[in-house]
Amino acid sequence: MDEALKKQLLDQLNAEMNVKKENKDARFDSSTGTLYTNSFRNYAVAHVDTENFTKGKVYEGGDIINGKMRVIDDTNRPANIDVGDYDFEFRLHVMEK
Predict the structure, then answer these.
(1) Segment 9-56, tens digit of pLDDT
(2) Which among 4, 15, 49, 73 is least buried, having the fewest CB atoms inside 10 angstroms?
(3) Residues 71, 88: contact at Cβ < 8 Å?
(4) How many CB atoms within 10 Å of residue 44?
(5) How far is the C-alpha of 5 from the C-alpha of 10, rounded, in Å?
(6) Concatenated DSSP letters for 21-55?
(7) DSSP states of 51-81
(8) Angle at CA 17, nearest 5°, toward 21 and 60?
(9) d(Cα 13, Cα 96) in Å, to the nearest integer?
(10) Are 44 and 71 in contact (CB under 8 A)?
């Protein structure tokens, strides 16, 4: 994707979200194609009971890198969950209120 187009899309998104440029609340990493912003959150909902996850529990996740989301499991350890994992339902880029 053209760098000028990426900048234009990011500026448009920032304007729609009322993000001020000097706050640097959002940035686009062109090497990975990832938009990082403080206004969005990712969540994973477990559909199975295991020793590390509870069925029906919502886990707040970090950024998605290489198709995996990092969450803190029930044992307070970080876990990388593949976003294609059928044992979880993912809610991506949910706007903070």
Answers:
(1) 777 766 766 655 444 566 667 776 666 666 678 899 999 999 999 999
(2) 4
(3) no
(4) 24
(5) 9
(6) GGGT-EEEETTTTEEEETTEEEEEEE-S--SS--T
(7) SS--TT-EEEEEEEETTEEEEE-TTS-EEEE
(8) 105
(9) 15
(10) yes
